[in-house]
Amino acid sequence: MKYIIYFFSLLLFQSCIAQKQDRSFILKTKTDKTILELDKNGVVLSEGNPIASLTENNIILDLKGDTLAYLHKDDILILKNKNQITKILPNGTIDNGSGQSLKWNKKGYFKLNNKEQLQIIPNNSKLYRGASLLITMQFMIASEPYSNTELILSNQPMTNENHFPRIEVYTEKDYGDKNAGSQTTTNSNEKVYGMGKADYQPHINRTSYLLDEKEAFNLMNVVLIPLNRCFKDNKPNTTLENYFTLSLNRELVAFRNLLPNSLTGFLSYDYNNERQFFETIIEYQKIAPRSIEIVWLDEKQWFVNNVFYQTDLSQFYLDKEPNIDEKLTRGTLIDFIRFSNVIQPKLNEGFSHLKIQPEQSEIPTKNILLELALTPGGPGSSSYQYVLNSDGTLKNLNKSIKIPHYQIVSLLNELQSIYIQPIEKSLKARPKVADDGQSLIFKVWKDGKLINLQYEGVENPMPKNLEAFYNKTVAFFRKSMEN
């Protein structure tokens, strides 16, 4: 009897070895060219040369053993240092959120677009997911793709903005040359003088952390501590979950009770001796915080730490590798807060009695931020109208998309350095242009008001410095709409 048990145990062991060997496959184009291969040891080959490895746990490693990408618990492939995240289902389907999922057919063909497709050999449905991982890695990580194919996959990649819950941390970082301005010279009297000019280039840096199911549960139950000392108030502790529940349902009485009764107590403190040392960021214009922490529950609900409540969010990300760590835009943290349509509404939670009149004009809560338009002309002429609203919605004709708040900050921040020459005559008073003439419409929120300008070719040309910004922004809006 014991020999029979030993025999079947041996068969089972050999079967497990065979299953491990079944991971190997090759990917070929329709011209029978092999572009990728996974050998039985999990080594990824390109044209016979090893370029990476794929573990049984769906982790892609480089040749040094460092992680290039891995599958999150919710089927999301997270690419290291890339602002591109794609969902890969167990059957190998690649879902980038655009509605154009890429799938394997029963014959083992993977259609990239209308012209190109890949074939997996052998055709085994258990291999589809591993193959999809390598396809995604190849066309999103590799610097030089193996074909000139314009992939649907890369046309509209998922970004970090599509995945929740997550924590984002924004900091100010100087990317200037640390050695600039440090040179010295000595005159005939042996007196030392400094030479050169310091190279100060402040930029906003973002790190983002996705949370798994357990981390999200713990985050929702984290205690929010009211900044009672700052506002001379006596509000009770609450939880992040309760904050989101009340703010989502807009139960104004209950939600308002979470917040300070007024700013009277806060403003009664002397700024120089007391207020400037408070944790709250509502007076960011006077002294910039070291960082801004934002918790995103979904695209419509978020919490900004250290406004009226504070909690230790670092416990959820201090020991985690960020999913995204990137330089966003040039500027200081003060300007980033000033122009962010995500941070600004949270500084008073929509209540006028909690609003401090800023020393600088921030963006409006409900208004046009930017409108760029080319009016219709004669037959065959093109026209457009891009309208960016303060909620981040970009509209053109019947289509609308959302623009990330940090990109809006970048646009508005750049505009601050451009002098906009006012047009003396109003639009109503200006003479009518010819029937087949076209005008450039430029509306922009600047210095606390909406500036409305119209330029009409040779008669009234757009200034060169503004024209460069205008053309670059139109190109950015057009590309955003196409994606």
Kindly describe this structure.
The chain contains 11 helices and 27 strands. It is of the alpha+beta class and 483 residues long. A hairpin with a 5-residue loop joins β13 and β14 (192-194). The termini are far apart. The model is unreliable at 2-19, 141-159 and 424-435 (pLDDT under 50).
Count of beta strands: 27
Radius of gyration: 29 Å
> What is the tally of helical segments?
11
Task: Let me know the average pLDDT.
Answer: 79
The low-pLDDT segments are 2-19, 141-159, 424-435
How can the largest sheet be summarized? 11 strands, antiparallel
Based on secondary structure, the structural category is: alpha+beta
Q: Which term fits the overall shape?
A: globular
Gap from first CA to last CA: 67 Å
Question: Approximately how much helix is present in the residues?
Answer: 10-25%
Binned strand content: 25-35%
Strand order in space, largest sheet: 9-8-7-6-5-4-3-2-1-11-10
Topology:
Layout: H1 2-21, E1 25-29, E2 34-38, E3 43-46, E4 49-54, E5 59-61, E6 67-71, E7 76-79, E8 85-88, E9 94-95, E10 109-111, E11 117-121, H2 128-140, H3 152-155, E12 166-174, E13 184-186, E14 192-194, E15 202-210, H4 213-220, E16 223-226, H5 228-231, E17 238-239, H6 240-249, H7 252-258, H8 264-267, E18 291-298, E19 301-304, E20 309-310, E21 324-330, H9 333-339, E22 368-374, E23 384-389, E24 393-396, E25 399-402, H10 405-415, E26 440-446, E27 449-455, H11 464-482
Antiparallel strand pairs: 1-2, 1-11, 2-3, 3-4, 4-5, 5-6, 6-7, 7-8, 8-9, 10-11, 12-15, 12-18, 13-14, 15-21, 16-17, 16-20, 18-19, 22-23, 22-26, 23-24, 24-25, 26-27
Helix pairs in contact: 6-7, 9-10
